Each structure stands twice: as structure tokens, then as C-alpha cells.
Amino acid sequence: MGVQGFQEYIEKHCPNAVVPVELQKLARGSLVGGGRQRPPQTPLRLLVDAENCLHRLYGGFYTDWVSGGQWNHMLGYLAALAKACFNGNIELLVCFNGALEKGRLHEWVKRQVNERQTAQQIISHVQNKGTPPPKVWFLPPVCMAHCIRLALLRFHIGVVQTIEDHHQEVIALFKENGFHGLVAYDSDYALCNIPYYFSAHALKLSRNGKSLTTSQYLMHEVAKQLNLNPNRFVIFASLLGNHILPDEDLAAFHWSLLGPEHPLASLKVRAHQLVLPPCDVVIRAVADYVRNLQDVHDLEAIAKDIFKHSQSRTDDKVVRFKKAVEYYANASKPPHFRPYLVRPNQMGLPAALQMLNIPGKPGHGYPGPPLAEPVHEADPSAKGLLEQNSYSNIPNDGKQHTPLYERLSPINSAHGSNSNHTDPAFFITSSTSSSSENEENTGSTANHVSDHKGWDKQRNQMDNIPEGDHGDQNKSDPSVTSPVNQSLEGKGHVGVNAQIPSLLSMPTRNHMDITTPPLPVVAAEVLRVAEHRHKKGLMYPYIYHVLTKGEIKLSVTIEDEANKDLPSAVQLYRPVRQYVYGVLFSLAEAKKKAERLAMRRNHLPDYPTVIIKEWAAYKGKSPHTPELVEALPFREWTCPNLKKLWLGKAVEDKNRRMRAFLACMRSDTPAMLNPANVSTPLMVLCCVLRLITWIHAAFSWLLFL
């Protein structure tokens, strides 16, 4: 599990670090168990990471969640949550994951494989027992995040959406905008110097809607339990295994920390299979190793030591180790001003909404990921800070570090400067927030080629691959799990006391990317509007991903893979997405230009080709390889370009927008275009029913052929 197992380790092995709190009491500035009360000067401002909190915002593992469509229940719960926050003087800003994050694609692939298995367990349970499945199998319904985002906007709760690196941007948003706490459930936040960190999984609203409770994580208590100075959490997180340097690449190092006499040493090689040590054992062993480091700023020496057992790709692992240290150092940087500074509420707007980016107006954007400032490695002050190996920063009696549940006011001036902040003085300046940071330093357009001949050649090679091979790729992709699930088969006989060979002879990525032709140029005004609406949470994130990256990720849905008569949801709605791609890249207008140019030059038109990569997992298709989907223009009418379609203010522009929507849904008939025939509230329902009927007829015709 690597660094992601650290959150569970805190809850299981650090009971003193998990403290139940009531958010209304915190907003009133009262002590736990009753005590002095002080009217707060401002609301208690909390940043919520929706990525870890969707099931709680949905209603808290609602019993009948598997049936789908509990819209009214979700609206009722969110309305009660908004009312409780308003009455309790609590201000929320919910941050949704809107980043493609190609650097974490291998994590997404593993998650989709697991969720696909969970979906089949849910289907089997419902078919065999006829009862709702267990809560531990909770799988978010399709577009749940989108529905929750719309509902939060309806109840006037602040919403933002990340754009490149979700974790870095959430941390930057928290530190640079004076929030009093972060509500999330992710090990990256626990290890990145978040002053007041609350559990998203423990967030509960009482039935009467008056009490909102959760748990607070006291990281100084975790540091005590690990006997590790918080200033060394950066190296600690980098050596646990993460999205930059996976734990598979650190397996030999982790086993070497245990030694041959450890009780678990016999598990490292069993029946020619390599396994990873249990997560809690790895955490304690790595903490001991980091604590005993003499010079934490000498990354070359540390890398040489941890990869001395590596038999392949050592240089690549060293580079990734340095990138991981830089990533967590950037996330752990203290803010440039006091962390609890609350900006004045201007023009009567909620403070959460004032930080949203307004295009064209400087000074109103919420910050991106912070970058490390260039500092020379030989800086003695930096070296002295990072070489601290005592408890100088860890309070022993609680007097030096007052937890949030003991503060007297939402603004505590005593904590203006926190001695636990890490000063990453030895990291090189670079942007680590790029979604392609792990793809060998490629840019956002690195997956595109300018030579169409090379693309055609590669496409011909892909066409020669049998369709079944894509679905079976997961059989050849090794994965490494705990001793309970051992699935990586070693090569040759390996003794118990022998050196552990490298788990993979190639970079640890269980997915294969494909090169696509370059995307058409999109108008700068369109990109500006798309980015603005994306950041404010007013637009579905797929649109920005298609316009800027040319690819999307489609999550697993709950569907019966044993039913061979029906296509999967990904296949069912693919024609709609193809037309949407065509609208986004103005293919109709590009097609007309190509035809006019061909007429002038007296040759066949050269129509532009737009290929979008769709990462998805469904029956017969593994998520390890994307599918190449071609954008299509409308045949019946020429859709205007995207700039005119989005920014046009005339009445006819509004009618064109409606027709473009209906055309994507195969419903642009005269009857549907007449508002007198179909009222607006029933428009979407009628379009979906017509689309399903059309696709079912087309699918039946193909089966008949």
C-alpha cells in the first residue's frame, strides 16, 4: 500500500492521535467537555476534499445506494448539512478532483481493477439474496461527484475544482487562504504539515441536524509514537512508496530493513513469488531508518544506500526518489503569510466564494501548487534544520502545541508560526504539479506527434492486435500485494536468504500509453472560459480534459458482465461522446473549410482527424490500455464553432446550443426542437429514452448481421 497505508496505520496504532470533536463547539471556540466560551470573530472555515468525502456527502453509506437515483435523499442530506453549518457558524469550501493526473494513472488502473471486482460482487449479491449489499462494498454511482457538486452550488456552499495535481492544489488552497482545518482522508495530507487535519470518513451529521462531528488527527502524537521528528516526514513519505516511486521499486529496501532474522523473513520468497512486507511493519522500519540518518540533505548518499540491492533501473529509481522528495517538500512548505489570516469579507459575499478565480481580473485567483525556492545544497542553515533528530519540535505536555479542539477562538495568534513546518532547503526548483510529471518529463502534448505517417503506422499496428488481447492484458501485468494476496511470479528459484531481484525489469507502470495525432488548435478565449468554469466547478471536468489533454478516464459502473446481450455503459454512450468531441473541436466548420480548399485546388478533401483516448474498464476491456475514439461531426447540419456556440448571446445562438445538445443525443427532430411539444424539465428524460431506443435498435441490427 506504500504511503497510502499510513492513514490506516494512524487509526489502528496511534489511538492518542485520533480525537473526536464536534465542529459546532470548535466554531464557538469552546473547550472539550465544557468550559469558557468566546464569540468567534469569523466563521470556522473548513476546506473539504470531496475526493475522500463523497460517500459522506452522499448521505453516509445510504442503505439503498446500490439501486441508484437517490437524488431526493442526497438533496435532503446536503440541505440539512448546509443548514447545520450555517446555524453553527461554519463555512465550508468543497474541493473536487478535476485533474486528469497522468502521473497517478497506475494508481487509477489498480483502483479500477478492484472496483470492477467489487461491482461483480454487488451484482451477484443482489441477484442471489435480493438485499442491499454490505456497506463495505460501497461503489459510487455514476456521476455522483457531479450531482453532489450541483447540489452544493444549489445550497450556496462554496465549490472549487482542481486542474493539474489534486493533492498539491488542495494543500496550496488550504495554506494560502487562511482555512482553520482540512477535512480529508489521505496519507499525503497527514504527511504534508497540515496544522489541523480532520477525518472525512468520520464526518457525521446527527439525525436532528444539530450536531456535526468528526475526528481530528494530532500529527505530533503520531510523531511521538514513531519517535520521528516531523521535519523528516518528507524523507519518510518518499521511502514508504508513492505514486512517483512505487513500493514495488522499494521492495528490496523494505525487506533489507527487516533483516534475515525477522519473523516475516520467510514470507519474502514463497513458491517463487515476491511479496511486500505488511504495511505497519514497513512504516515502523522506515521510521527507524529515517530517524538514524545522519545527513538528510545528502540525497545522493541516501539513494545509494536504499538502492544498493537493486539489480535494474537503479538510475531511474534514484531520479524518482529525488522527485518524490521534492514533491513532498513542496507540499510541506509553510505558507508565505500567517496560516490563520482571514481575509475581509468583501461585498457581502461568502469568503469561500471570493477566492474563486475570475478570468481577466488579477488578484482573485486561488493559487496553484507552491514551488520550492532554489537554495544551494551547501546552505548550513538548511542543513542544520533538516539534521535535527530530537524532539525539539514535538511537544511533550501539549503546552507548546495546542490542538484545535482546545483553542479559545477560531483565530489563535499563538500559532502564527509553527515550529513543525519543514524548510525544504535542498530541493531544486521545478513544477511538480504537472499531471505528466511521472511520464519521463513529458509535457501536456508529449503524447501527440506531428507526423501523421507515424500515427497511421502505429494505428495499423494497433488494428492488427486481436480484440481479446486488450481484455487479457491484466493477466500479464504483475502486481504486488501483501502476503495474503501474492500474485507476482518470480523467474527462477530464489533462496530465502538470497538478494531480492527487481520486481520489474521496466519502469513500474501497469498501463500502456498510445501516441495520438496532435489536437487541433483551440481558441484562446475558449480555453480561458473553459479553465475558469472548470476551476469554479461549473463544468464537467471531462470537457477541460478533452480540450487540453485529448483524453478522459471513465470509472467503473455497476453492471452485469455476465449478460452478453447488452453493451456496457461505456459502449452504450460512446456515440454521444463522439459527437461531443466533434462539437468541442468544431469539426463541422473544419470539414467545410477542407471541402472549400479541395474545390479550389481540385483534389479530394483532406478531413481533419481528432482522436481522443478513453481509459475505461468494462467487460472484455481492461483499464491498462486506452481506446482510441474518433470525434465525429453532425451529418444533418453544420454546427457553429465552439467560440460562437459558447459565447454567442443572441437568441439564435441559444437555439443553436439547444440543437447541438439534441443532435448529440440523436434527438434533433422537428418535434423535439419545438418547445411547445416537450417542456424543458422533461427534455433530458425524453432525450435519454430516445437515445437508448436508437442504440438498442442499432445494436440489435448489428447482432442480426
UniProtKB/TrEMBL annotation:
InterPro entries: Coact_PPARg (IPR026784). Residues 360-380, 409-495 are annotated as: Disordered. Residues 429-445 have a biased composition (Low complexity). Residues 410-422, 476-488 have a biased composition (Polar residues). One of its GO terms (cellular component) is nucleus. Residues 449-460 have a biased composition (Basic and acidic residues). It comes from the Eukaryota. Belongs to the constitutive coactivator of PPAR-gamma family. This is Constitutive coactivator of PPAR-gamma-like protein 1 isoform X3. It comes from Cyprinus carpio.
